[in-house]
Amino acid sequence: MGRRNMSMLRLGRCVAFLAAAAFLLPFTILLMVFDQQYNFTYNSKRVFYQESDFYKINGTLYAPAYTLTTPTYRTQYVFENGTHDELLSREKFLEVGARMEARRDALRDQCSKLGLDSSSYKAYSWEYLINRQYHVIWCNIFKAASTSWMYNFNLMANYSAAFLDKTKEVPLELARKKYVRPSVEMLKKAQSDSITFLIVRHPLERLASAYNDKIVHAWPKSFHDKMGHRIVRKYRKISAEKPPPPKERYPMFEEFVSYVVDEARAKRPLDMHWTPYTAFCTPCKFNFDVILKFETLDEDQRFLIQMARLQEVVKPEWRNSGKGSQTLHIINHLYSRLKKSQLDALYNLYKYDFQLFNYTIDKYYEIVQPDDNSSHG
Prior knowledge:
It contains 15 helices and 6 strands. The protein has helices spanning 2-45, 71-78, 90-114, 146-156, 161-166, 171-178, 184-190, 203-216, 223-235, 253-265, 277-281, 297-307, 325-335, 340-356, 362-365; strands at 55-57, 60-62, 128-131, 136-139, 195-200, 290-293.
């Protein structure tokens, strides 16, 4: 009798176990599906920089124990597999590297001389893009090869070239789906194992390019098209004097410059396409490894791609280059419409951009018009 009871008890336990398993099986399968869906969503929408890239000690973020290699080792490294046609030769790479070192030194010297590296100036990290996969950091200065490098950073964010070439989405908006806007602390920590770069161009060429792209060729009813109408209403002078006022619906360059200067004097935020990049990227508050210039961009970006080992991901293409004699002729024509006082005001607005990156304004004074009450001397 005792053995029978024991057998019945064991049978009851088995039945109970199987019933519990049958009851829990659907929930187990559901949890597995949710887990797979989470992983799929994370991998398809993940960002390349977040706080989890660092570890914390007493609430302070620390980057992984990794530092950039020395310049000598870097040079050996990039030429290990230097079989690509677009790579610089060893001699050219060293030549451009020396140029980059001179630019870094000049930037540090000017920052110190002007006091822009002091604690009284605030650092801004809002416009930086940090790619943790390839260890590169870029401050996106608009109208300075930004189209090309926004495309490159989207490639590095694992968007396919086919998708980028056909999509109607704004490249910056695509990028910001992958690259979060970092804090100053996050940016400085990420710099410990990354190559940080920015691209600059002559401030007045950049302003003319922004005017042509965003004002003259503004999309109808867009933000900049509406801005243009406001500028015309405020700055276009209508009088009986000859010559008659221009018939163009968009602002003339001198009207646009008057608007930009007045906005700056009123201390209102400037549009990101013509904000001084000294304020946009605060280059005196962060260390830069590579400073590319629009004037030498072909070699400079090849150097950067090679140094960062990006040759399998991006190509040294230059989209919307805005370079050449025709472009320079257009720029000269635009500035020939300005008065000397307007050029003075523009230099005052962009003076740190001029000083930090060794640009001059002298040639522009040769083409502007004298003020009505003075002559250029």
